[in-house]
Specification:
By secondary structure, this protein is an alpha+beta fold. The chain is 64% helix and 11% strand.
Length: 382
């Protein structure tokens, strides 16, 4: 079956258009035969009468296409006239309403779904409707939609993918799909970060950095992930400290309420020996103090629960391997240059001179004897 035959949003088949027209006509006919309650002041209410006794009547009303509902109880003394639906009319209206709910399940003109999703909609939505309403004006349309969904499901099961309105083997378009998905996740992560929803952003960015076939996206996601991770930790840590302070303050209020209750109970014990009015007033004070203590204790428990949730989230965040390097590889470190030799110190010079003298003492002795001989000759001549 060609993809062009599939029912898609914005391009319903002629059969679907006929069913929608029939549905509109039926709804128009229903409104004239609805449970209609006309009040003596002229107000007309149309809906389902859900309960009734000798004195009152309850009617279920819908507004804004069913998005707003209300059950109104009316005194029969206010009613001028009642027109009731027949059981058949109510059954027909329910069938039409159930068919309306099917309209949100449409095949996408651009993308395909997972096989499991096709099966879920076919079985839990379309076939469930046919089971619930085996004979209805919409049976042929729903049956046709099952055929269309099954045809597309079979294409996907055979290894094909619809991407940007075209069917292709999954292996061929997998990189394109991954790239489109990565860009979408990055955009969503940027939006979440701008809204300070750092934990949610971390989860999306973790998916991107695992896309080994998209190095450009990974390089964009890594520094963003590091920043979002640190911001998430900081936000959770701040929330933990705030809740810790709130717990302490709430516990102080509990202690104060307990003291007030103790004082009220003592006043009640003393008032039992006096007049009855004082005892009644003291009992009221005790009841009020006990209620305030219970409220304060409940608040402490609530705050402790919130604090525990934040602690668990913080621990889970810290346990994740999410801190990544902003670059895939660090530049090689430069080779260390050899250090220049240190200047010779004075002890090293003396040591060298002594060693030279030891190795050349014979020559030095001869030279010294010659010098002494020459000096002595000069002295004799003078």
């Amino acid at each position: 079956m060609s993809p062009s035959k599939y029912a898609v949003p914005g391009k319903p088949s002629m059969r679907t258009l006929r069913c929608l027209l029939l549905m509109a006509l039926m709804l128009g006919g229903f409104s004239a035969h609805a449970d209609t309650v006309t009040l003596k002041d002229g107000t007309v209410l149309e809906g389902d009468i859900t309960a009734e006794d000798s004195a009152t009547l309850s009617i279920y009303l819908e507004f804004s296409g069913g998005t707003i509902t209300q059950t109104r109880q009316i005194s029969k003394s206010e009613i001028a006239r009642i027109v009731r639906w027949t059981p058949r009319q109510k059954a027909e209206r329910q069938t039409t309403r159930d068919y309306e709910k099917l309209q949100k399940y449409q095949l996408s003109p651009q993308d395909s779904y997972e096989v499991e999703y096709y099966n879920q909609i076919i079985n839990d939505v379309f076939r469930a409707f046919l089971t619930e309403h085996p004979v209805s004006p919409y049976t042929s349309n729903v049956t046709e939609r099952i055929v269309e969904w099954k045809a597309e499901r079979d294409l996907v099961a055979a290894g094909n993918v619809k991407f940007r309105g075209r069917w292709s083997p999954a292996a061929e378009v997998a990189p394109l799909i991954e790239s489109a998905r990565g860009h979408q996740l990055l955009q969503q992560a940027h939006t979440l970060i701008s809204q300070h929803q750092f934990e949610s952003a971390v989860k999306l960015l973790q998916l991107v950095v695992r896309m080994n076939g998209q190095p450009d996206l990974v390089s964009q996601a890594k520094p963003l992930l590091t920043s979002a991770y640190q911001s998430a930790l900081g936000s959770l840590d701040q929330e933990q400290r705030q809740l810790g302070g709130d717990v302490i303050s709430a516990q102080v209020r509990v202690d104060q309420a307990r003291q007030v209750l103790t004082a009220a109970e003592a006043a009640l014990a003393q008032s039992t020996n006096g007049n009855s009015q004082a005892t009644a007033d003291a009992q009221i004070s005790v009841n009020r103090a006990r209620a305030e203590l219970n409220a304060a204790q409940s608040n402490v428990e609530f705050l402790k629960g919130q604090l525990e949730v934040v602690k668990q989230k913080l621990a889970a965040m810290k346990s994740q391997v999410t801190v990544v390097e902003t670059s895939t590889s660090a530049p090689p470190a430069p080779k260390p240059q050899p250090a220049p030799p240190p200047p010779a110190s004075q002890p090293d010079v003396i040591t060298g001179l002594v060693a030279w003298v030891k190795n050349n003492w014979v020559a030095m002795g001869v030279i010294g004897a010659v010098i002494l001989f020459l000096i002595s000759r000069l002295l004799i001549k003078d």
